[in-house]
Hints:
Layout (H helix, E strand, L loop, with lengths): L2 H15 L9 H15 L6 H10 L14 H12 L4 H13 L14 H12 L3 H14 L17 H6 L4 H7 L11 H25 L4
Helix pairs in contact: 1-3, 2-3, 2-6, 3-5, 3-6, 4-5, 5-6, 6-10, 7-9
Amino acid sequence: MDNTDIISKTITFVKGQLENAEGGHDWFHIERVYKNALLIAKEEVCNLQVVQLSALLHDIADSKFHNGDETIGPKIARQFLESEKVPDAIINHVVLIIENISFKGGNFDKKFHSAELDVVQDADRLDAIGAIGIARAFNYGGFKNRALYDPEIAPNTNMTIDEYKNSQAPTLNHFYEKLLLLKDKMNTSTGKKIAKERHRFMENFLAQFYAEWEGEK
Ligand code: ADP
Ligand code: NI
């Protein structure tokens, strides 16, 4: 099977897997990350098939919705790729990327490194910032029944992953705990450039938000 066939089969598979996914991790998130990844990959030396498969398969089973089980997504991805007879070296690389891409809470460490991981991680991070990032944060906060903002509750950038997951902090805190930190965590030059613009957009949003909160505008 040539790569175009494998990619289109993967797209069909992922769409099926994400049929009932919540708004922040639905097929449209995957589609945006896939497009970001292709754009970033153009300027990098990397294996395009690995980038494509990892972007498509990186969120097929979010641990937040599987009792914190981080191993389900990589397992399902491996089974699918094996059933499609994708070469082992490619499968192993894609699975490593899926295992290492996430920046749960304030956890920015990664144990595995590759040019392809750098590309897909940047693509995923770009979807967490800017206008879409703002929309996703409030969507997630709503899903968790969190307040929009509370001037009495300060952001906390030192939470453990579990504390972070269970935190009832208002959604605006998430900007300081994660979203505004992403610009300086980007791996690739294209990723950095786009992140800079999206970061500025979030800063403008926050300034406007506080002004409106105070009844100034
Ligand atoms: P990923 O799955 O890409 O590793 P997450 O699952 O942590 O990232 O986040 C998915 C989306 O939900 C992102 O847009 C993120 O900003 C948002 N999100 C995650 N945690 C929070 C939170 N505590 N408050 C608001 N939004 C959140
Ligand atoms: Ni993602």
